[in-house]
Amino acid sequence: MAIINPLTYTIANGDPVDATPVQANFTQIVQDVNANAAPVGGNASQEFLVAPTSNPAGAVPLAQAQQQFAALNGSASNQFVVANATANNQAVNLGQANSLYAPVSGNAAQKFAVANATAASQAVNLGQANSLYAPVSGNAAQTFAVANATANNQAVNLGQLLSASVSSANTAGHLTNVQLTAPSRALSTTYYNTTGYTMWVWVTCQTFNSAIVYAVVNGSTINNGFTPNSNTVSAFFIVPNGGTYQVYIGGSGSIQSWIEWY
Questions:
Q1: CATH annotation of 177-261
Q2: How many whole angstroms separate alpha carbon 44 and alpha carbon 46?
Q3: Fewest C-beta in 10 Å: which of 30, 51, 87, 143?
Q4: What are the residue ranges spanned by the domains of the chain?
């Protein structure tokens, strides 16, 4: 269908014409366009638009697109969105994501959160981690802490480390002080640390001719005693759990006191 019908007047080059035929042709063009061209619905200016289409491969006008495609939930402007997903490998739109996925607890913005883990190999969210893992004692923020060790190859937490050398019978939190005298301890004799803890030992000897006092721990000489004072010489040394230790005098003398802490 032609929009403009054949013109009433035919004007050739060189014809002497006045404004009447020119005006008549111009008026016809305006009338034919206004009558035959598809106007935008409701638009008084009669602007051109793309006609509605039923072919998916064809172009569609804005109004038809807004009616056919899913609008963003709650948006009056009918903006394009990804349609709701019906399979795990499909994209989801914002409204569907907000309703399907667990929000951060107490967060009205419905932000994404890692779901609670049901297996050791899965990630956990912050709330689950705070409730599952032991917090540092007295810390309301539920900060992570290393659990108490139950084997030699495990890490220990700070509280366990600080209390590991404290005697269970000593509720005041001080190290056990063991005073030993002859015949419990003797010079040049091998002893074993079977306490289960690291041991600190202080031995004072009465010597003659300023003889030195020294200790041997696990086969190594680790102390040559202190400066003699009126022939009284002391040696201080540490024995690891399970280690061996001996005390010697580099000359003649005897034990005056022998104290062990663990």
A1: 2.60.120
A2: 5
A3: 87
A4: 1-30, 124-164, 177-261
